[in-house]
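Please check this chain.
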Amino acid sequence: MDLTKLAEERIQEAIERGEFDNLEGAGKKIDLTEYFNTPSEYRAGYSLLKANRFVPGEVELMREIAMVRESLDSAQGREREVLLRSLAEKEISLAIIFERNHRGARRK
């Protein structure tokens, strides 16, 4: 038996058992715009990362920077100093990441 036929049979059996009845997003249109806007050589990798809710390091760092800035609004004294130091370190780290990415893009 070929694999395609076997896969189709297993899918049909799962449908009959109702295993696909309560899937997240059932009945909703799938927006594939982002998928097709991604260069074809990156699609599989990006789709895998997105499906597993992977967040790139620089995005996570930007979130952390925003949280520190928000905390600074109410911070005073020593706490404020610690937050300012943390903010500076995070901003430098982010700048380094962006610079590395920019240099890597120029080399290609």
Notes: Residues 6 and 12 are 10 Å apart (CA to CA).
